[in-house]
Design goal:
Keywords: FAD, Flavoprotein, Oxidoreductase. There is one protein chain. It is built from ten helices and 27 strands. It is of the alpha/beta class. It has three domains: about 190 residues, FAD/NAD(P)-binding domain (3-Layer(bba) Sandwich), CATH 3.50.50.60; about 120 residues, FAD/NAD(P)-binding domain (3-Layer(bba) Sandwich), CATH 3.50.50.60; about 80 residues, 2-Layer Sandwich (Enolase-like, domain 1), CATH 3.30.390.30. The strands form six sheets. Strands 1, 2, 3, 4, 5, 6, 18 and 19 form an eight-stranded mixed β-sheet that branches. A six-stranded antiparallel β-sheet has the order 22-23-26-25-24-27, sandwiched between helices. α1 packs parallel to α6. The longest helix is centred in the C-terminal third of the chain and has 20 residues. It is globular. Bound molecules: flavin-adenine dinucleotide. Flavin-adenine dinucleotide binds next to α1, α6 and β22.
Length: about 425
């Protein structure tokens, strides 16, 4: 049986950055990185944006523009089927491989709709492979229906419209993203989408999908688009962990603020339900930048544990890094990029600062700043991230360094927040 100092499961941003951080911290080589994905590690965010819009080829660009270090042995197209945390082995392609340290970074997969016929011609979007099929279908489509108004749904609808496909976006939400981002951002997103020619069918559920692409909606209408994309969120890819002693919550692997899940086992990215060192509570995240940051923490800590000759946290914890970055993401809908950082458990107040060509939404809960969203407002976004981390008051954040009079005006424009239990994902 081959044994590696580090085995990483998953070739997304969390897995790749974990492998890199391990090597940078002086971890042993080679590292084994095993992935269900068939393609060399690539950036996912462009797939729903410039790739689907037809601005760039669906070829996949390397994560952070860098190839994997030579010391990483990559096994692609080989899903891990089992993990034995007592024996410290993983099973891949029927073969057992031993590990000293293990990073779990198998991310998520798109949810499908149970009301769809099994043989319905439905697209999901997660992998490069998915994107290549979607782009090929879009090349022949005159009409498209996108189900789901999360970020992937909004981005994909905008991209399809930009390439000339007559697109309808369907969602039970009253407006795109309103449940998470509130009315101001939702209105802006609605305007961007309709400006591109997207028809919004909001407040509408899918009743059923009959093969090949007959979609019955709760408003009584039936659609038969040339292309059907389901973008209704994701679920953790964790089936292969069934039967392990690892603690899981709704399919995510529970970990402490060092991303330590069990002796010799670390978790990062979408798969994790990790304690956040600053928030002081577990925060599930589904964001590219957070997966990179978590991978870095997991890889460095795994190397520190290996160097200490033990993965027992009581012995080597001092040297471990905490996961302490405020979660957030960027999303580009057509030509418009939003930057959002938040703790992710909703808000009860919004303060909007609208200025020509830009806006900022400050989100509060019980008077504290819990989130910021900026459109062409990078300065506010960066300041907001720091203030969220500090636990600043909403009023202080919204006032900023603008004259008191202007701040007063914007507070007068405050909108009631959705108060929703906003999910912290980009999907
Ligand atoms: C189209 C698209 C656009 C997005 N745009 C943005 C954006 O603009 N901003 C943003 O913040 N976020 C965005 N996201 C979300 C972001 O991509 C994810 O949060 C991020 O990829 C999570 O990283 P990860 O490494 O945890 O998991 P993933 O990227 O999901 O990678 C998981 C890896 O594990 C592999 N795997 C799964 N099961 C197994 C197994 N059993 N054995 C071996 N390997 C396995 C998978 O094949 C994959 O390689 C986007 C997502 C998509 C799909």
């Amino acid at each position: 049986m081959d044994t590696f100092g580090l085995v990483v499961i998953g070739s997304g941003p969390a897995g790749v950055s974990a492998a890199r951080a391990w090597l940078e911290a002086g971890g042993s080589t080679p590292v084994l990185l095993v992935s269900a994905d068939r393609d060399e590690p690539y950036e996912r965010p462009p797939l729903s944006k410039e790739v689907l819009a037809g601005d760039t080829q669906p070829e996949g660009s390397p994560i952070d523009g860098k190839p994997l270090p030579n010391q990483v042995e990559l096994r692609l197209g080989q899903p891990v089927s089992q993990v034995d945390t007592d024996a410290r082995t993983v099973t891949v392609g029927g073969e057992q491989v031993g590990y000293g340290q293990l990073v779990l970074a198998s991310g998520s997969r798109p949810r499908s709709l149970p009301s769809a016929d099994a043989d319905a011609d439905v697209h999901l979007l997660r992998s490069l492979d998915d994107a290549q099929r979607l782009v090929a279908a879009a090349g022949h489509a005159r009409t498209a229906l996108v189900l789901g108004s999360g970020f992937i749904g909004c981005e994909a609808a905008a991209s399809l419209a930009r390439r000339g496909v007559t697109t309808t976006l369907v969602s039970p939400e009253k407006a795109p993203q309103v449940d998470r981002l509130g009315t101001h951002a939702a209105d802006a997103i609605s305007g961007w989408l309709t400006g591109l020619g997207v028809t919004l069918a909001m407040g509408t559920e899918v009743s059923s999908i009959r093969a090949p692409r007959q979609v019955h909606l709760s408003d009584g209408t039936t659609h038969e688009p040339d292309l059907l994309l389901v973008a209704v969120g994701v679920e953790p890819s964790s089936d292969y962990l069934d039967g392990t002693a690892l603690q899981q919550h709704e399919g995510r692997v529970v970990a402490d603020e060092h991303l330590h899940a069990a002796p010799g086992v670390w978790v990062a990215g979408d798969l994790a339900r990790a304690m956040h060192a600053v928030a002081g509570r577990p925060i599930p995240v589904e964001h590219w930048g957070d997966a990179l940051a978590m991978g870095e923490v997991a890889g460095a800590n795994a190397a520190a544990a290996a160097a200490a000759g033990s993965s027992d946290k009581t012995e080597s914890k001092e040297a471990w890094k905490p996961w302490d970055q405020v979660p957030g993401f960027w999303s580009t809908i057509g030509e418009h990029t939003l930057q959002y950082a938040a703790w992710g458990n909703g808000h009860d107040e919004e303060v909007v600062d609208e200025r020509p060509g830009r806006f900022t939404v400050w989100y509060g809960q019980d008077g504290r700043l819990v989130g910021v969203l900026g459109y062409n407002a990078e300065d506010d976004y960066e300041r907001g991230q720091a203030l969220i981390e500090q636990g600043a008051e909403l009023a202080e954040a919204a006032r900023g360094d603008r004259p008191a009079e202007a701040a007063g005006e914007s507070e007068d424009e405050s909108e009631g927040g959705s108060g929703s239990d906003a999910r912290d994902d980009a999907s």
